[in-house]
Design a protein that fits this description.
673 residues; mainly alpha; Amino acid/polyamine transporter I; 2 domains; 25 helices; 4 strands; transmembrane; BCCT_transptr
Length: 673
Amino acid sequence: MQTPQRTHHTTFKAPVVVPSLIVVGLLLLVCSLWPAASGARFMAAQAWVIARFDWFFVLSVAIFVIFLLVVALSRFGSIKLGPDDVAPEFSFVSWTAMLFAAGMGIGLMYFGVGEPIQHFVSPPNAVAATPEAAREAMLMTFFHWGFSAWAVYGVMGLVLAYFGFRYNLPLTFRSGLYPILRERVNGVLGHAVDAFALVGTISGIATTLGFGVMQMSAGMHLVAGWQVDGLGFKLGLVAVVVALAGLSAATGLDKGVRRLSEMNLMLAIALMLFVAIAGPTAFLLRAFGDNLGNYLSSLIELSFHTYAYKAPNEKDWFANWTILYWAWWVSWSPFVGMFIARISRGRTIRQFVIGVLLVPTAFNLIWMTVFGNSAIWLDTHSAAGALTQTAANVDALLFRFFEYLPMTSILSVAAIILVGVFFVTSADSGAFVIDSIASGGAPESPVWQRLFWATLLGVTAVVLIVAGGLKALQAVTLIAALPVTVVMLALCYGLWRGLMADDAHYSQSMAPATQFWTGQHWRLRLSRMLKDHTEEDAKQFIRQVVTPALQTVTNELRTSDVVARVVKDSDEVVQLSIPSASQRDFVYGVHVLKKTAPSFLPRDAAEPASEQPHTYDISTFFADGREGYVISYLRPEEIIADVLRQYERYVLLASDHRTDLLKGAPEHTNAPR
């Protein structure tokens, strides 16, 4: 009996996984053994990066927004993320739910009340706790959670999805650098890029899990009165989240992650609607219009505002909020961008940009209005300043806010469940992304690998919670945002080059000279197509085929008293011209055209012209500057037919008065000079 062939037990790429685990282990060791000292050093390094490169973060994020809009509105917007005939893998609702849950779901729960209240207490340009402070608080909250944030995720996701699905490259971080690194993406540089992304993703998700446990613990203490300060409770909470995340990851992307994300979205919408109805509804409706108008009218100014002419306290606010946010979004972009890329196959670039920029941003702005404006209104009308007094304790602020709404206990329980589900979704989508990076973008990997990464995320969070190293690792993640931003700018450049190559490759239509070909003498035509013509071959074709054909037409025209002549400037250029006193002369010109050899893959077309092989063709040119076309495959009688076709067009245009303006314009040929 033949033993069945064993399949691979792992798809891990050792050059990526081993260095990453070593670095993560060292970071955990440092943050655990010396939490205070490492935290101080890393925070100092973070402050240095923010103080020296705040302008760079501001300019880069603004570039990301502009870049996405330009790409979406250009002719490249219709390019699909995948083959031209592929359909989207997920419905629009499922797709939106997943990118929303992975990108910002948990952040909205944590900062939906916290950030507006904190800005209300300490606004950058207004007197605290005044109507002006409330308006500015919502403006800055909108700015931090609006288009700019999603543009960071969108750039990363678009680049990875494009090169992964359009160029058939592995769905990993390194693939976005293919136009720059070329084949070196498969070597040491590519491994280093993926390892860097892997360490950053593990660190970012683990710290978020740790802070999420803090918020859930605070909520359970306020709602049920449980003692949640003990490590046993927090470790048990992490274990439950990781176990559920592992179960979801094991069931696959289409079932586990998709269904959890859809449930997240439905619960979030239900909670938001209840708060909007139970809270100051009429005020919220007015406030949203005011917030939106204020945000849109201030967007350009805010996007480039670096507080260069402001007082030190305002600069501190700018560094501690806006720049910290930009660094946080960038540090999370490898994880969120790769997950968005994974679920976006089959959508056009325009659909991708609209979906990633507009839909989540709109939801974020509505959410922040409902929770943020409600909290500010309640604090000034019902709570007598109780919420602003709790502003420093963001972990408990959401649940304090619920105390001033009906059905407080039910709301708090629903919020805890929603936070928990968001964490599970972040952990299981994180396990998918980490496994994809670690596996070199392998389409299929064993279930145990995703379980391994989910467990590692939980262990990392547990170690940080026990040792008190969450702040230190968070600072490391934010420091890493500086090189990631540099890489993302390079990704924009690489994507543009790839799109240009894609457009040139896929938009190439059949040569106009083939439109009247009947298929006769196909063997001769095929032999010419398969041959790479030298410059001498092209010159010989002009001498022996083109020139006699043009002379034949000229001789026939002269029998009808039409003044025509063949002008041969050199062995590379010949033209038949018919002068006219009332309009442009008729010109059917032919010249030798040096061009790159045909490319049969977009990645080949992306090579610089100097590095690609060249061939020589015979191309037409005309007096009106129209684009010429190759006639290297035509026989003499077919060239004659093409001349007559162009001359017939010339005669018809002569009688069309709509073209009078162009008739007398100077000649503008594309012939070589």
